[in-house]
Amino acid sequence: MKGLIIKSISGDYTVYADDKNSYVCKPRGTFRLDEISPKVGDRVIIDPNTKTILELIPRKNELVRPFVSNVDKMFLIFSVKEPDLNLNLLDRMLSILEYNGIESIIVFSKIDLLTDISEIEKVSNYYTNIGYKVYHTSKFSDLKFLEPEFKDSISVFAGQSGAGKSSLLNILDSKLDLKTAEISFALGRGKHTTRHTELHPLFEGWIADTPGFGNIEFPFEDLLTFSHSFREFFEVSKNCKFNGCIHINEPGCEVKRLVKDNAILNSRYENYLNFEKEISENIKNKY
């Protein structure tokens, strides 16, 4: 029988099967021998009688942090205040999701805490103009505008710790009753309240609340592939003087021209440069 892994705790996998029942299963012994680790989001074949996972159906994608697979959409929840907006982490996650072919939906939360929204509007408009869906939420939002996004999809809430991921999910479906915590002002970031990844049914789809995290590693083996993960850079790179331009030191670079003309968000390019150094170091250490 086919099913979907919706929860994983200490080697026990809860599978929602095609018969509309849930089974807590163990993977068959060959999984360990073959070094196969099931993930939340995996489509599997199970034996409901022995409660054994017999086979993993090939994944269309997988992530390490959060540890999920077959993701259709990632909601990137970022607060504009308390904690402050972290565009470095946002751009990092957008880059990785672009590489994995996962749709990114940006949600800027806690808009009600701002006295001047002009700066966040500038940022929002930029990401909208390069093709991302961008939503604003506050404690006054009813979030009905988000409901159609979940249908027929496996979606994930991720992003800044303390940005209100669990709170937003509780507003979308109060039956979830996910734990939330106040911001740690001494650390300037949120306290982690989610301890494992679990899929919840929501608006004819599935949503995962994931443990908060502050950093994720890049998967890139070369700088050109990385440069393509910044979608607007890839779009204009055909106008660069050199094929394979990575927009760092090359003359006649269209990306650098657009940065100078303020057509590309300055923080976006600064993050790109920082990521390039990190990836170059990773490649150097690997080889």
Class from secondary-structure proportions: alpha/beta
The CATH H-level homologous superfamily of the largest domain? P-loop containing nucleotide triphosphate hydrolases
In order across it, which strands form the biggest sheet? 8-7-6-9-13-12
The radius of gyration computed from the alpha-carbon positions, rounded to a whole number of angstroms, is 21 Å
Number of strands: 13
What is the terminal separation in angstroms?
44 Å
List unreliable stretches of 5+ residues: 180-194
CATH topology of the largest domain: Rossmann fold
Average of pLDDT = 88
The CATH C-level name of the largest domain is Alpha Beta
Strand share of the residues? 15-25%
Largest sheet: 6 strands, mixed
Architecture of the largest domain, CATH level 2? 3-Layer(aba) Sandwich
Overall form: globular
Total DSSP helices: 8
Report helical residue fraction.
25-40%
Explain what this protein looks like in three dimensions.
This protein has helices spanning 30-33, 87-100, 118-129, 165-172, 223-228, 231-236, 254-260, 266-286; strands spanning 2-9, 12-17, 22-27, 43-47, 52-56, 73-79, 103-109, 133-136, 154-159, 183-184, 189-190, 198-202, 205-209. It has 287 residues and is α/β, with parallel strands linked by helices. The protein has three domains: 2-56, Nucleic acid-binding proteins (OB fold (Dihydrolipoamide Acetyltransferase, E2P), Beta Barrel), CATH 2.40.50; 73-209, P-loop containing nucleotide triphosphate hydrolases (Rossmann fold), CATH 3.40.50; 223-286, Orthogonal Bundle (Ribonucleotide Reductase Protein R1, domain 1). The strands form three sheets. The chain has a six-stranded mixed beta sheet with strand order 8-7-6-9-13-12, sandwiched between helices. Strands 1-2-3-5-4 form a five-stranded mixed β-barrel. A two-stranded antiparallel sheet has the order 10-11. Strand 4 and strand 5 (52-56) form a beta hairpin.
